[in-house]
Design goal:
FAD/NAD(P)-binding domain, 2 domains, eight-stranded mixed β-sheet, globular, disordered C terminus
């Protein structure tokens, strides 16, 4: 067991959010920090998700830090291997390795009101920190639905984020459960080798062509020699997506033209009218995340693929049963059913000032001021917190905005001096959250006629940001101290004064 270690800042997680926080801390001149990571390497979701065909649906030059451009991206949309390598490179380039505490899973972190600090218990020792930055991310813990009979299934079962590379799918009868971003990459990757593939589709996704290509050697040379060209490329990609935002957040009817293009994409690949009908969504495009693929529909049209327009209801031995009663005998079940997004797994492990967990505080829905600070949890910030997700652009833009907020938060603590904490006022959280939810009513995610992982159990969208990334950056540029209560530790009397008072009391 490691000895107890006190640091100014403890960062939890080493994905894009955690590595970005570590780099920003060093750039702010703060070196007294650790990055607590439960795995044995950095990378977050890009370390864990290694399934066949895994790649990003955001262009490479936009899905990277502005302070760490990569002129050598091999493709316009990069695969998992290259994105993970990029995060390793950033970790080395900015000197983050000495701050890493790998294989340190955070079991509990509790606010110590007497000392104005966080006490942290990990799987390999204890820590304390003046400030905690939670960067565990919403795509960190896989979600497998509770299916009756699944525990007694005689074949192989795994989630897309826990891919079993030792299991050979060649010739196997495989059930793929789910039709999200992971599934549409997995299906065309495994379809040629499996004996039979049965896709369980509760809701058909909207799928647009993926404009992917190799980035040529001359392009990469140009970006290395003239870095401003890569910056301009990134800026163009950003600008195009900023212009699209209003259709998602204010005028969903404008998405009708894109729907027609998406239906034409289905018609080109799917000639069977019955199958085409099953694959055509019945809700407004954009209500769920728009997916990108050139190979998904062609794979579904192959003779060894069955599409069941129904969810998986139960498992009987090695037979999977759909909600519509369809029975299929399979050798393996692969779940592409997403993650615990609206019920963050770290939340039960974080104990606030009133002795209650963050999960308890958020039982009726997640909410945090500017997606960063939750009422009752002083000196704690969340990267990719409530209502900071995006439906059409790069999360790295939102992460960098939150890093700006984190940096100013720490500057404010320095200015205040002494043992100090900032506790966000519940009223400020309430005002912010009501404003966000009011704007959400006009969005396609709320009015588009679908159920998605964007919504929590109460039907509220607590995941997405109903505006542009530029607007969010302005909202998180600085900390407004009027939204916080300043907590100060009581001054401890000097030893000499305590002795004098004791002597006077005796006399």
């Amino acid at each position: 067991m490691a000895k107890h270690e006190h640091v100014r800042v403890a960062v939890i997680g080493s994905g894009f959010g955690g590595i970005g926080a570590a780099v920003r801390l060093r750039r702010e001149g703060i070196t007294d920090f650790v990055v607590l990571e439960r795995a044995d390497s950095v990378g977050g979701t890009w370390r864990d998700n290694s399934y066949p065909g895994c790649a990003c649906d955001v262009p490479s030059h936009l899905y990277s830090f502005s302070f760490a451009p990569n002129p050598d991206w091999p493709r316009t949309f990069s695969g998992q291997r290259h994105i993970r390598a990029y995060l390793e490179h950033v970790t080395d380039t900015f000197g983050i390795r000495p701050h890493l505490r790998l294989n340190h899973e955070v079991m509990k972190t509790a606010w110590n009101a007497d000392e104005l600090r966080w006490d942290i218990e990990t799987s390999r020792g204890s820590f304390s920190a003046d400030v905690v930055v939670s960067a565990t991310g919403p795509l960190s813990d896989p979600r497998i639905p509770d299916i009756p009979g699944l525990a007694d299934f005689t074949g192989k079962v795994f989630h897309s984020a826990q891919w079993d590379h030792d299991y050979d799918l060649t010739g196997k009868r495989v059930a793929m459960v789910g039709t999200g971003a992971s599934a549409i990459q997995i299906v065309p990757s495994i379809q040629p080798k499996v004996g039979r593939l049965t896709l369980f589709q509760r809701t058909a996704p909207w799928v647009m062509p993926r404009m992917d290509r190799a980035i040529s050697a001359p392009e990469r040379w140009l970006h290395r020699q003239l870095p401003f060209t890569a910056t301009a490329r990134r800026g163009l990609l950003w600008g195009i997506r900023e212009l699209q935002v209003s259709a998602f957040t204010k005028r969903p009817d404008e998405l009708g033209l894109v729907e027609r293009l998406a239906k034409a994409n289905i018609a080109r690949a799917i000639k069977d009218p019955a199958l085409r009908a099953r694959l055509t969504p019945s809700y407004r495009l954009g209500c769920k995340r728009i997916l990108l693929s050139n190979t998904y529909y062609p794979a579904l049209a192959q003779p060894n693929v069955d599409v069941i327009a129904s969810g998986l209801k139960e498992v009987r031995g090695n037979v999977v049963v759909a909600a519509d009663g369809t029975e299929t005998e399979v050798d393996a079940i692969i779940f592409g059913t997403g993650f615990h997004v609206t019920d963050m797994p770290i939340a039960p492990r974080v104990i606030g000032a009133d002795g209650r967990s963050l999960a308890d505080h958020w039982k009726n829905g997640m909410e945090a001021l500017r997606g960063a600070t939750a009422a009752g949890f002083p000196n704690m910030m969340t990267i990719i917190g409530p209502n900071t997700g995006l439906g059409n652009s790069s999360m790295i833009l939102m992460i960098e905005s939150q890093l700006n907020y984190m940096a100013d938060y720490l500057r404010q603590l320095d200015v205040l001096g002494g043992r100090t904490a900032l506790a966000v006022r519940p009223s400020a959280v309430g005002v912010w959250n009501r404003r966000v939810q009011k704007r959400m009513e006009r969005t396609v995610w709320k009015s588009g006629g679908c159920e998605s992982w964007y919504l929590d159990a109460n039907g509220r969208n607590t995941t997405l940001w109903p505006g542009t990334t530029g607007e969010f950056r302005r909202e998180t540029r600085t900390v407004d101290l009027s939204e916080y209560e300043v907590l100060r530790a009581p001054a401890k009397p000097a030893a000499g004064r305590r002795a004098t008072r004791k002597k006077e009391a005796v006399q």
